[in-house]
Records
---
Amino acid sequence: MATYTLHLAHLYGDLLNTYGDVGNILALQYYAKKMDTELTVDVISMEESFNPDDFDIAFFGGGQDYEQMIVSRDIPNKKNGIEQFISENKPMLAICGGYQLLGHYYIGADGEKIPGIGVLDHYTLSQNNNRFIGNITIKNEDTGETYHGFENHNGRTFLGTDEKALGTVISGHGNNGDDHTEGAIYKEVFCSYFHGPILTRNGELAKRMLLKALKNKYPDADLTKQTNLQIQPTF
Amino acid sequence: MSLRSSVATAAGKSSYWFLHTFLHGGSSLPGKITTAIDPQILKAFGQKYDVVIITGTNGKTLTTALSVRVLQQKYDYVLTNPTGSNMEQGIVTTFITAHKSKNGKTLAILEVDEANIVKVTEYIKPIAFIFTNLFRDQMDRYGEIYTTYDKILAGVKKAPNATIIANGDAQIFNSIDLPNPMIFFGFDHTENKDIKAPANTDGVLCPKCNHILHFGFLTYGNLGSYFCPHCGFKRPELTYKVTNLTQLTPTSSNFEIDHHQYEIQIGGLYNIYNALAAYALGRFLGVEPEQIKTAFASDKKVFGRQEMINVDGKEVTLILVKNPVGLNQVIDMILSDQQPFSFVALLNANYADGIDTSWIWDGNFEKLQQHDIPQFMTGGERYKDITFRLKVAGVADPIIEPDLTKVAEKIKALPTKKVYVLATYTAVLQLRKQLAEQGYIKEGMDA
């Protein structure tokens, strides 16, 4: 039996699941185990309420245009819960469609403007008949860590003033192909266009999220062993 | 045929002869030459053939091969295209290199790439389409399933009289009302309950009201007897059904269609769908159930994607994997093996493999823990990705061999007689090349 338990909310996991993003949850479970922690998962989907008090960590993945549009109609019902979750500094990973829906709006496949929930300050435009597809490498400016991933997106996202980039683009396109940023960090929310998936290729980020969730839930615990966990390169 | 078409055909034929004789290959260039001389060449062919078009993500090749065998029970000659030649130019080549028919129209059963259907139906009005399934597949190349279906429908729109023979267990083929006559095939082999698909399944929204579909049962992926508890949308009436699964092993499948007993010499539930599709086409064109039995029983060579190779006494089964739904079906199939076996996974990320390897995370490698597998091995250019995938799935200590030229040697040293090798497209080619050079197989694969 693990000493610690963490409960993860997989937002719309039955609809936004297209690009192998479930690997992020598998990676979190893998590293959690090494940190003497059991990570349990619940999918929170359409017409279900999201109670932030029930969860310690959250994952919001990407999907196909059609499913993402359906999710955009349901997610306003979960806005308050998500807002509270973020304000309590609980870690969340949002990839691709999930990233876009946390912002103000994105432009759908038919050119229509689809509102997000605006809990983060970015917005997303589209490109005409083009996608950013390929391997990508970025560097996180705070930690100096290098992250590897695969991007495949039509959206061009522009960050708000209180968001930091997840990293600076070394090779690839990033958020919009112009400003050399990739992804976003706001409080303990990590956003990215990375598939690969991001946490299977970049275990440091998985460790960072898990440590934060453990510190939130077990403020008095001695997490030295967890903090000292060495992440072996996987890419 | 017009003079221009005749000249174009002759030019294409001679280039095919040249390529075939001197360069041992060439399936799209003759088509290119012919089309350059006469852009409407397919129209001329269309007047001489009754054409059936087979399309979908998985199972095109085997469904086509089985359909040809089934229809050969009734027709002396059936034209078809070789594996991989399923784009416009390859199809033109298929026609120009065909035998001349003596009297009346000849039947042509063609596997056509989803996006190339419209280029064919622009000129040829087929008598029938077969839709096998649509799954997420190498998303860096093909895009999303709804986009792919739109491409298919663009082709169907130009042939509104063609009968569509579709997989009724796939809700996407029932999502848009079409003017074409529709016939559905599917599974009806077990009792109906009320279940939802596992969370990591794509295509589970009701196309009429956007609520999440429920299922009486699922066969694999999102295939099954779906229904929408919210608006009543449900699986259409099936004309041809699998009514019983009698015995499934990794190398053979025994099952009933419409209560007739059949056997095919290949494992995997997905291959029963391919047989069912071929049965449906056969019945539609007047082949009797008994004749179909004969067609299914003849010749193993048709099952090309899964190959048994003897390597110094090791029974190596080499299986091509390219997308998560196919991969999960292969894992289910090999887990039905009662003998001990070693498991080898080879991952490349060249264009033909799909340059995005994320899809391996949608593969249910965790299931391999159900079997006591004595040794795992990983390899290929992306050995790091596949090794970590297996580690996360609970595999403690795989042999890691990045260099595919050394994989054959390593296979010989594995602790079991049976070895399953799952590999992406270019990894299959590279491994086969090694095995051919070492004399374990005779010829290369048609690419």
Note: Chain A has one domain: 4-227.
---
Amino acid sequence: MDNSTHKTLYATHGWVGIISGILLFVVVFSGIPALFENEIEYWQSPSLTQLPKSQNFELESVMQTAVKNDFIFDEIFISPADDIRSHHILWSYNEATEDYETLYLAAHNNEVVTPGNSELAHILTELHTDLHLPNPIGRYLIGIAGLAMLLAIIAGIFIHTKWRKEFVMLREKRSWRLLLTDQHKLIGLWSLPFTFILAFTGTILGLLGLISPILAFAAFNGDVEKATQAILGPRAEITGEALPSYSLNALQAQYQKENPEMLVDLISISGLQKNAEPQNNQASQNSESPTLLTDSGGIIKFSGMHGSKLNSLQATTYQLSTGEQIHQANFFGNGPFQRIFAAVVPLHYVFYGGGWLKLFYAISALAVCGLIVSGNMLWLTRRGYNERHWLGRSTLGVCAGLVFATFSVLASSMWLQKSGAEQHHLEESIFWGSWLLCLFTALVFPKSFAISHWILRGSAAMGVLTIIGDGFMNQRWPWNSEGWVLFIHVGLVMFSALLLVVDYLLPHKISQKKSTEKTAIEEMAKAA
Amino acid sequence: MAWFKKVANGNGSRICAAMLGSLLATITLTIGITMLWPFGDTTEKVFAGGVFFFVIWAALFYWAILSASGSRAWLKVLGVFLPMLLIDVYLLRF
């Protein structure tokens, strides 16, 4: 590789990283709680963690309970109990109230249970999926950040020619700059396969909405809806004609028989209606579900994950009135590109491999966070900027601020358990308030290193406060907890300890000489 | 004219070609690939286009950014964009 190519790649790696670094940190760090969304959602509602362990799921019985509770809408989604939670979740978009309605049923007896008022999991996950911005702006921004990460990785691979040496090199007793350089290369090399998978799958997920019209334009004359239906199955076409519903249990059994290795994680039912007069209606007398009727165009779709393969795009659609299978999306045995797409979601959100792989992903995501922060610090250090530079302050305010805000909202979700329906508003206020406070402090006060120590200590304290809060408010102490509650406690202790270690290792002040952009790039190229 | 040459050959022009020009070229290439992909059914063609989109965008970005000047970067991306645009129009028309 000639010198000018090397320099251009170095400059591109640096600038792409600097421009997208802070946003990438937000996306990657918020990805850690998003990875454990189901576990956090289960933990945040103590009433749900006390349910007897059960994964019993009978669709007919679940829907009968839903109808009895007037939970009947045009399209209802059901997420059955799994190995984490012992309750089913039903939700639907209510067009009258313009909000989502949810219903929680205990798996062991299908009785309605009341969850807590915390929205912790949603607050943290929505930051990762949409940045809390209107759809699709947030999603596209995340996709662009993923693409920037991909570009930075590609350039990073080509500029680090001495990778065998860099795999193990960490000169911690030389200068601050060398330490940052070695740490950046070391983390980058060790986490390379993970970061590449994360960036590629994240880019596809983020920008899928943007490229769908292009693909539909080429293959379906621009009809995105037609393309979506061809891939994922048809939508219900409501006719207004009521018919008796086919037995939902029979459909569930039929799906399991046809797809024995699939773990059903989502069922959508469209067109189901409540029978107002089940005893007198001719249709209901012929039906196996006397209180349930369906529109003649009503459909039911079962979709799920393959137990042992990377596959998320497997769904079967049946006609609700006849039980006839009308569409099957199964990308196994099909072409390689369908299989690549089917693997994107399980690879990104670890829907395979179990809890230990999730833990590995979480640790790797933390390493990527370290990579991003060290990259920004390295960029500043190589140009001789001190801790007062706006980029350093912004990095501190946004990145360390997000860590503090995440731990603050975790702690508040436990201590605010008794605040009733206002809990999720308070949680949101604490999350955004603490983040803004950190950003404001970092931008106003010049001593960035001193502030970073306080933020790290504060975050660790919040982690410990979360466990104490869970103990006092819910009587769930680490020594009497089990399952995911215990894992979350242990995770909080480990994370808090890690923050204190970083606090101990981070210097309180650094001194350096100023250099220009040109000399910085030349020095970087020379160093490589 | 000298002013235009300076701008066209500058760093800003090169970066624009790498970001915007490569995106336009990628769109036309993706449409072409989706329509011409010889293996599998329509669904496979759509997914092939979807996967190639990101690979091509990244490849064209670096191909353009590694050019000696802005005008050369634009020549590269337009060299992909224009022929593919003609092919796409031909395929969609007939």
Note: The interface with chain B takes residues 4-5, 8-9, 12, 147, 150-151, 154-155, 200, 203-204, 207-208, 211, 214-220, 227, 230-231, 334-335, 337-338, 340-341 of chain A (CB under 8 Å).
---
Amino acid sequence: MKRGFSILAVVTALLLSFALYEALIGAPTERTMGDVQRIFYYHVPSAWTAFLLFLINFVASVVYLVRRSAEADIVALVSAEVGVVFCTVVLITGPIWARPVWGIWWTWDIRLTLTLVLWLIYVSYLVLRRFSTSSQTSLLAAVLAVFGALDVPLVYFSIWFFRTQHPSPVMGDGGSLDPRMLHVLLINWAAFLCLAWLVCWTRYRLEVLKREVEEAQAMESLLEPTR
Amino acid sequence: MNPVHYLYAAYVATWPIHGAYLTILWRKYSRIRREMAKLKRS
């Protein structure tokens, strides 16, 4: 287990370094936006990683609602937490790109607004889990996660369904991304996925340890009066 | 401001966010280890 973690950590570090080099130097310069377009190689993979983590949170929450499995509950918590971190990166890098390209930091465009709502939903999910003292916290959080996940496809498909200021899809139908740019984009996504996996792994182990300690403390407090 | 500065700002802004989260995890781990040590002593 420890060896697997070390291997993943090394692979992640190497991949992140290579992806950074490719994004800043290897990828061709975009004709109209120039170098500022390179923000795309951090912004888009962070968004895809956040969406994937929120999807995992949704599946784990459904599993928890059906089976009341502690493992599913931990997976839901971990994926939401790491997903919020990646979504924060999206919300920070987006306006930094928008300022030189659009001339404004932020606009209440449908995709931007829905992404902010998505972030707020998962932040409230984490706040609920952190501060609720109810024995039903995991259940309430799972229900909130199931409803919150509805926003993920809305964010993703909003640029297909609505006229927005946000750039059109660069892949799939109507996408016209240069193959070299696509290559760099996918390398960066692979690097961010490795990072997300590494952080989720660490967080999962930490949560298991925390619950074991809490259980031991509860046992100790039960035994205390008899001493 | 030169557009390249925005590029650097975006790349530089990303890592403190991940770094801050990893710091939170590290502090959580240290607290759990302290509690484990306390449990072992008692």
Note: Residues 17 and 31 of chain B are 21 Å apart (CA to CA).
---
Amino acid sequence: MKVGVLGIGITKFGEIWEEGLRELLLDAQLRALNDAKMEPKQIDALYTGNMCADSLSGQLHIGAMAAENLNLDKPSIRVEGACASGSLALRQGVHSIASGDADIVMVSGVEKMTDVSTEQVTTALMGAGDEELEGFNGLTFPGLYALLAKAYMHKYPALTRELLAEVSVKNHFHGARNPYAQFQNEINIDTVINATMVADPLTLFDCSPITDGAASIILASEATAKKLGTEVYITGSGLANDSLSLARRKSLTRLDAGHAAAQRAYKQAGITVKDINFAEVHDCFSIAEIYAVEALGFAKEGEAYKLYKDKQTYFDGKNPINTSGGLKACGHPVAATGVKQAVEATMQLRGEAGLRQVKGATTGVTYNVGGSGATACVHVFKKMK
Amino acid sequence: MAGIVGWGAYIPKYRITAEEIAAVQHADAKAIKAGLGLTEKSVPGKDEDTATISVAAARNALARAEINRKEIGSVYVGSESHPYAVKPTSSIVGEALDIGNTYMAADTEFACKAGSATIQINAGLIDSKMIKYGFSIGADTSQAEPGNALEYSAAAGGAAFLMGPNEEAVATLDFTCSFTSDTPDFWRRAMQAYPSHAGRFTGDPAYFKHVEASTKMILEKSKLKITDFKYVVFHMPNGKFPLRVAKKFGVTKEQIEPGLVVTKIGNTYSGSSILGFASVLDIAKPGDKILVTAYGSGSGSDSFVFTCTKKITAAQGKAKKVNDYIANKEYITYAEYLKHMEGIHQ
């Protein structure tokens, strides 16, 4: 399977107080069209990821909004899969083309999160967990990931507090080199460890922020993409699911859905982990990146710490992870994140990633998670000559 | 234009430290002090409210003005903690000051600039010769929900300015202007005990946008440069915000610090920028120019340019100064603080 990436667009991520949900989405859509040098009427279908617009902005019907923004009457659907909404929209776009239903598709992700209180956002995000087993009993997402961190660090004490902090330190290092990132400042281990405690052992600097932002990507069939001289293609898409609640997982020290999604995507793309030059992964909390690199196969279970001990995950290291700054530094407008990962992968493969460019990259993967691991979606991006 | 013929301040003597609040809230006092740029705040006594603070400040202003109080034609009191939702504070103040019954009166509310707005109202009345003297007062016993970040800064105090003809003024009002927009950064709805705020939204799109726009406007209007001013006062919701604006406009430490009362008493809301103004009037010399920019959430800024006259020196010693009130303090515990605030707000 090969689906070409014709264009990418991304807004600045952060507290974008001057723009609402619709404007953010439109901004990303127009940037993608501009990048692809296309007119809206060339789009056959639209898929837009969004998780929180109904609970935070009182707005549903995002599919219609995405089409209306471009004055189109083409099929347009909102896709929701919690924080994985963006990558699920991407997968729907890929399938729409693969099925022959559409030739050119626009995939977007958008989230407007900073107009309401932190309490309201925390409640809305908890919709990604199991309301009966977790939310009703008072658990929040920082709490869920803190439980995972406790379980992992108990079983694998080689992942020290300091090495876990390296995840955020590296992501801020990359964010400082990404003009779209919410936080463009470098930090050190002390900053992470001494920050305000959110949910033991996770401090404020282990947690991704609340962010406004949108990203769009325009896809096309292989034939059309080749005709247009497209360099970057999606060659694999893997999706897997697990229980909503942590209580019903087989293991708390690995995310099974992540492992399964990676294997399915790799198989479709015909690659192994050794072929991968970089990965954009879901670090909603620092510990989530540890699970991610193990799910993708960069390390065996319990051994991810080695990558951080040797600083392999920097853009110029052996296994570059989250060159965009990840969710921690680039920001996490939840449903935009999955599409942002695809934008970053495309920028890397095109050689447009500036100060964070991975040299000679030809294959990259994106890994997007919904909830505490109930959904995992992996895509393989390849540069074709 | 009209000018100020007398000024006065009042700050309750009770103080609570950031450490005392942080200990109860299990918070990091050091980080809070560094983040807000203040160490303690004033707390009203159990029998003090916006009316009593206004009266005490106004009496000090009258002591400096030495006029026939029956000639006072208006009393305007700005606050976001008027004791009554319906029933004016201004009439209580007028009665307590024994100024007769032939005065205009109203209470104003525009978050933290309710007091400074009354300076503009009286300037208009005096310039149009509708009145000879008028009282402009801003005072608050501001509310903060226990556990909220506002608890460290929401303080009590106020200042009063008796305004009158320029020829009698200790400081002439040379220019004033305002910058206003509908920006909901901080609010308290009817029947609510405590205000709500929009976190970091209270910064760039609210305080900084309005304070900077209004200050820029008055500099253009007056054709004055920042270096022309001896003292500069910006509204002080905390110790950090006014210093950031000061840096942007090139205001020196010597210009801003004399009016930066927030670091010692907290944010007195409607009393905040005007208490800073009162504190520089306490030490200013004839000819000194003073720039004041107030800010009220919701949002708006009022800017003023004043020039001190020869009359100011004699007036300074006739009443207690802002620093006298700052120095007169008694520390209370968090439990006592709750008891004080309960008596006022419930």
Note: Chain A is about 35% helix and 20% strand.
